[in-house]
Amino acid sequence: MAALTHAPSRTAPDPAAPRPPGGVRQLGPNWYAAVMGTAIVASAGTALPLTSPVLHTGYRVVWALSALLLLTLFTARAVHWLRHSDQARRHLGDPAVAPFYGCLAMAVLAVGGGTLAVGRDVLGEPAAVAVDAVLWTLGTLLGLAAAVGIPYLMVTRHRIEPGSASPVWLLPLVAPMVSAALGPALVPHLPAGPWQRALLLACYALFGMSLLATLLVLPLVVSRLLHHGPLPLALTPTLFLVLGPLGQSTTAVGNLAGAAPGAVDAPTAHAMAAFAVLYGVPVMGFALLWLALATAMVVRAWRRGMGFAMTWWGFTFPLGTCVTGAAGLARHTGLAAFDWLAVGLFAVLVTAVAVTGTRTADGLVRGRLLAPPG
Question: Which of 3, 86, 171, 189 is most buried, most CB within 10 Å of its CB?
Fold first, then answer.
């Protein structure tokens, strides 16, 4: 766990001093969160009611960067498993680290979604559709494996201490929700009829399994906070992970409703559109409530000396899902207020990615992020 969240306090001696590099041995699955946080900027940006050649060029650059990061991490993690299999197995056996394997699936899905949303201008639509289809299929399979495998390990192998519930537990459970949100974009590219209907309903099934699993775990997280107090300083940013299933589920129902006409009969499509609003508006309201609470907890932790850690990437992707969720509600309700909400959240998202990305690059250059604990 120390390898994932270790960060010196702002009052620690010589926090900027370079440390001996640890190589890929200390490279955990949490690093895929950097890919997720980068890719969501491009996808969220294209959902906004803002049209500018400069912005779209920026989205393409960010998408290309996320794809490069994914390929780099794939290679590094493959080396990690080959050369440091003992450490890799230790990660799977650690209940604080194993849930981060959900980030692998979501990173693949996020880059795939960005390829279709932004990369089509670079690759052309046929190639972008093909890449997204491959990455969506791979990411969905990885997400289902994580959603089943990680809870199985937690029940059968991990030793869970009382009061140790963490928002990190949501990571493998929310991966199918990301598939549910990004799958509808592929529906129009399938043959009309049963193929489109099958993918649409499969995405609803992914939505349901993720939502119900989240409803089982989220009360444990709230109970842990109420009975055992705030999270450790380095883990405080993970409170933002709760926004992931909230914003992503709102995005999913909106995208599913948008893909429904033509794939299902008119009454069913109308019901799906109504459900997108009736579900999305209350959930977005709760997401804003949780955002305020999580922000207050982060401010508290910062005042007590919270330093930079890779958990800061928890500020990014979940916030991006709220951007896409709010943008979807704007399309289905016609209310400009949701457009303004999406734009405001996007500004915060870009700031979070810029700050976290800069601090991550600095930590890599100085050798702190991959240095052995202690």
Answer: 171
**Cα 317–Cα 101–Cα 157 angle in degrees, nearest 5:** 140
> Using 50, 70 and 90 to split pLDDT, how confident is the model at 25?
confident
What is the pTM (predicted TM-score) of this model? Answer: 0.91
For residue 261, list its beta bridge partners. 264
The answer to whether 268 and 260 have CB atoms below 8 angstroms apart is: yes
**Amino acid at the residue 74:** F
Contacts of 118-127 with CB under 8 Å at 24 or more apart are 118/42, 118/43, 118/46, 118/56, 118/59, 118/60, 118/63, 119/60, 119/63, 119/64, 119/67, 121/56, 121/60, 122/60, 122/64
Reported as type and span, the H/E element at residue 291 is helix 266-303
Q: Could you tell me the two tokens for 240? A: 């933002």
pLDDT in tens, 281-304: 999 999 999 999 999 999 999 999
Q: How many CB atoms lie within 10 A of CB 141?
A: 13
